[in-house]
Amino acid sequence: MQRHFDRDIEEIKDMLLRMGAMAEDTIAQSIRALLERDTLLAEEVIRHDDEIDQMEVAIDLKAIELIAKMQPTATDLRFVATIMKITPELERIADLAQDVCERVMELNREPQLKPVVQLPHLAEIAQKMVREALDSFVRGDADLARSVIRQDDIADALTEDSFRALLTYMLENPRNISPAIRLTFIGKYFERMADGATNICEMVVFLVEGKMIKHTAPGAR
């Protein structure tokens, strides 16, 4: 019975890691579509969104089946609960990458606005945070998870800086308003990806230490 349970746990873990890799790739492709103004790539990202949705459903069903059949306790139950918390975060992150691509397609129908240097940096930070959040889960590394959580302040600051730059463009010329608003949305999408990575890392700390740090002050984490 225990060997069967262990096999099921490894299967769920492998499914989560595949889903995480798909989400990471989706972020990378959305960044590339944005920077290269690649409408075809943006359309491709949007077309593949269902695959991640289906993966989330499959993981949830597997986890529920495992709980019902094996009735895991203590650490094993915490592991399954963590998985079920992480998968919706990954699905939302992938949805946000799709949202980026939808705005990219709209932007590509308009004249290009001056580059906003904060946006590529923000996108890179968000991508890095998601990657390291998944690494912290694989390694069971609460220290790495906390390091990712601290990076969220950088993402927030870059979002604010990009908004200020875009607001300046809007004030300079009314024709900049439409593309600037879309770029503002894109900045918020990347910020929310960073928030998703933060949420994943909070669950990793819970998994490793049994300590729930969500909604706690930074110094208490």
Q: Specify the structural class.
A: mainly alpha
CATH topology: Methane Monooxygenase Hydroxylase, Chain G, domain 1
Pattern of helices and strands: HHHHHHH
Mean pLDDT: 91
Can you tell me about this structure?
By secondary structure, the chain is an all-alpha fold. It has one domain: Methane Monooxygenase Hydroxylase, Chain G, domain 1, CATH 1.20.58. The chain is built from seven helices and no strands. α6 runs antiparallel to α7 (177-209). The longest helix has 35 residues, at 2-36. The two termini are 37 Å apart.
Summarize the helices and strands and which ones pair or pack.
Elements: H1 2-36, H2 39-47, H3 49-70, H4 74-107, H5 118-139, H6 142-172, H7 177-209
Give a concise summary.
The protein is mainly alpha-helical. The protein is built from seven helices and no strands.
Features:
7 helices, 221 residues, Methane Monooxygenase Hydroxylase, Chain G, domain 1, mainly alpha, elongated
